Automatic annotation (TrEMBL):
The chain crosses the membrane at residues 15-35, 56-79, 124-146, 166-187, 193-212, 224-243. It holds the Pfam family DUF5058. It comes from the Bacteria. It comes from Aerococcus sanguinicola. Keywords: Membrane, Transmembrane, Transmembrane helix. InterPro entries: DUF5058. This is DUF5058 domain-containing protein.
Amino acid sequence: MKIMSDYLKVANSPVVFALCALVIAIVVIQSLLFIRKAWKRGLELDMEKEVLKRAMTNSALLSIVPSLPIIVMMLALSVPLGKYFPWLRLSIVGSAVYEGSAANIAAQSQGLTDISDPGLTPKVYVIIMFVMTIGIIWGILFNILFMGQLDKMSQKMRENPKSKAFVGIFSAALFTAMLITLSTPYVANVANISSIIAFVAAGLCTLVLNALSKRYDQRLLSDFSMPISMIVGMLAVIIYANVF
């Protein structure tokens, strides 16, 4: 436990906090500048201030639901990775699915079970930080370089009924394959019962919530299914660990 406490001293140090806070502050300033420019542009287009205020309010409210899984993941990652770096990652371009997967892949590449392994050292922690940060850059660079051409190609395919159907099926297949690839090491690992319990409990919870949402026409249940399922999965593991 001494090794882990040494690495957590680095993870929770004032230096890491200052660096993370600086990056987040820059992103917040960029967001405020974007809002200001959007507001000015709206006035130039003769949009009423009440309409602009309502659009801003609705956007803020609609962002609450997608942010709940991110908050849950941030709290989960703050235990093994410290308080500040997960806060940074999930406040800018990170996502709930990517950050946990990238961190575990980096830890496993260094011979550890996952990021909760007590053998995690400051050196491995730095490697995890690099993998989580650099790994997500490529999607942004791809969009900058090729999004224009990709959008034109996508537009042509959407205009063709046959191609439009294929795009939907192909996208769903790619997403399903990604989820299977990421979840198989945990679900198929019979030595790690906790992962299987979390997976099954969260999956059943998602199915139940979606079924209730359709039956009673309550879209909120479907919208909140991911954060609720994540919490249910965690609670199931906690109950299992304390009972058995």
